[in-house]
What does this fold into?
Amino acid sequence: MSGTRPPVDYIERTREQYAALGYPAYRWVSSTDAPPWTPLRKPLAQCHVGLVASGGVYVEGQVAFHYKDDTSFRIVDMETPTRHLRATHFAYDLADARSDANVVFPIDSLRALAAERVIGAVSRNAYTFMGGIYSSRKVKDLLAPALAERIVNDEVDLALLVPV
It folds into this structure.
């Protein structure tokens, strides 16, 4: 196809990005432990859907993410107008996300799916963090459990995970 861009070599790009930041060579995490499969207990049209995204999105007025191993997260009220969303991240070109946060945080799409009754409802809170955290231990021991606890407390039936 003419005019299409070649695929991005994310492994090489990540290695170069981390080297430029002075990190040691990026070590990819792999595991043979598959997460347990959990089928939905009710139809999608009745499900309460949560959103967790790693694109560094935050609401205007919140503190922006930092650039080195920031394991914090931000809570985004799903009624926040899209024009009040901001993005910061060290590992991807922010031009598109800053033009339309839905590129990395599909808030308008989820609201539309709820309005069309494709999904039952959107959770009141969405959660965002800045991906590219070098310490997999910090993600596993700190960030992931904190986000999982929030999602469980929000009583969502499923969560849409949006990686960057």
